[in-house]
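User: Hey, quick favor. My workstation is busy. Could you predict this chain's structure for me?
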Amino acid sequence: MKKSTVIVRLSVFMLILVVINMISSKLYFRLDFTEDKRYTLSDATLDILENLDDVITVKAYFSEDLPTQLISNRQDFEDLLLEYENRSEGNIVFEFISPNDNEEIEQEAQQNGIQPIVVNVTEKDQVQQLRAYMGAVLMKGEKKEIIPLVQPGVNMEYDLTTSIKKISVDDKAKVALLQGHGEPTVQEVAQLAQQLSVLYDVEAYTISDTDEIPAYFKAVVMINPTDTIPLAHFTKIDNYMAQGGNVFLSHSNLNGDLSTGQLSVGSDIGIRGWLSRKKVNMGNQFVIDANSGSVTVQQQNGMFNFRSQIKFPYFPRINNFADHPATKGLEDIMLPFVSALTYSGTDSLVNFTPLLMTSETSGFAATPGYVDVNRKWTQNDFNQGEQVVALALDGPLGGSVDSRLVVISNGRYVINGSPPQQISEDNVNFTSNAIDWLSDDTGLIDLRTKGISVRPLDAVEDSTREMLKYGNVLGPIFLILIYAFVRRQRNQMKRNKWREGVY
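Assistant: No problem, here it is.
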């Protein structure tokens, strides 16, 4: 081949590479084969990025000499920011800064709320501690949002998108957290309030004897009221709903006390009567479920005391969800001491949706009664089928204007308390999703519940479990014996052919 021909071909090849590189810089895409689509931006993120009207600057404070297990975290965040930059058509700009090399930059990072984390690094059989930075600050004009620690995985997109949403929204919708009847404060539902703060201003609100509930509230949230609610306050709520207002209610009408072991019907604070006028009825028996959470009990074996975990049917684990925006992406909710909800309405204009249901192996425990943690439960205890413990109504619920109502028969499932205690993410996600649905703003639901967090094993019968156990042991041995037999037969056939002179 002539030298000139080789040069021409190489030049054409290089030109093609340059063109492909230029095209790829404009057309950014990647293939995502993960089950939870963690490398594919959600519709909520894309919608937020496409509607940005101003530039948001992201300062990523990341140490350069990160240990091996954290290097991918930095690279994933950089790739994510690059995709955000492309999707936003330049309205997201970013830079990476290493605080470890400059005392002034390190001080700047800490003033911005980015604190170092201590990471153990093993080098030459010695464990050393490294101060590492992995946070980011988002700025738009005088507004600022902080991601103190960039979490790997799906949380990375959620933290970044919600921070962008917070900083880009000027006037947030308002949600009322009802007070005055023993409800928790905003601080006592800190996880929920933080999640809602992306889209809403959560305001503590006490019903006035004179003024109506303001119509600008997208939803009124009633969590665990424990004191008697005056009839006048229910009238205010009804008037609010008659104007198209929406209500979220979580209420326990039954009391279960593990410390005393007592099971009883709670005091009548007016909730049951108000719900019955909406054709929603709360049961007076505890729902028990074979698919349940556990409690820690003190047990004795001879002279020794020990603590062990036992299944506790009064703590149903909810894995049975309706196909509804409020339950999208949920996997596991724990609801201790709940009662069943039923709907008896006949108005065809009102849509009834059971949101959360117990498993098929559910039953009832009468009240009053006592908790026996050592009770031996039988199959006959769980013969009532699935029970509804949360529901949604949509339609004219007291007037000619459509409104929405979500009811869950547990008051404490979303309360952090004081001092605060961490609660299940899905408990918070369900409440946030429900309030988004009530407020007719479901944009972040897909992103909020994106990712795989729980994958409980399906319950199997003892006979099936034994079959699987012995199958795992004997199956490979049986396959090896079959392979050996087939191989021996083939070798025997070859030897017979050789003896017969057939090659």
